[in-house]
Amino acid sequence: MSAVSKGFTMVEVLVACVLMSIGVVAVMRSAGQISATQAVLRQRETGQHLANGKLQEIVALGNIEQADTEGDFKDNGYSNFKWTAQVTPSGIENLDLVRVTVTKDGTDQNESSVAESLAYVAPAATGGAQ
After folding, report:
1. What is the DSSP annotation of 41-97?
2. What is the pTM of this model?
3. pLDDT in tens, 73-85
4. Class of domain 10-120
């Protein structure tokens, strides 16, 4: 008569522990990557929000030809973000293209946030007919 074994052998338990360890390590790595990705996305979202706000400010103030073309957001509490603005003719009379680029210190230009819009430019005043 042969005895029927009940339970796991030591080798089976060891293999199960190794497989569980591999799974736990993979999950922990994924969690670390998710945290890093969230930080990058938060930075990009902040940059885009600042770019949109600065664009609206420049357009709302009018007289875009004499507006500042660069600065930072220290007054807003974001001292590590800088902005530049470019105003170029759009090719349509009385409309200029306003482009605001926001970059964070320590990042390259490829990671910048950009907002752009067309802005009305009043025609130059002329002497007029009398």
Report:
1. HHHHHHHHHHHHHHHHHHHHH--GGGS--EEEEGGGTEEEEEEEEEEEE-SSTTEEE
2. 0.70
3. 999 899 899 999 9
4. alpha beta
- Identify the sign of the CA torsion 115, 105, 33, 39: negative
Closest CA to 63 of 122, 103, 112: 122
Question: For the chain, what's the residue count?
Answer: 130
Domain parsing of the chain, residue ranges: 10-120
- Enter the tokens of residue 32: 């670390």
Whose tokens are 């664009």? That residue is 55
- Do 70 and 84 touch, CB atoms closer than 8 A? yes
CB 94 within 8 Å of CB 123: yes
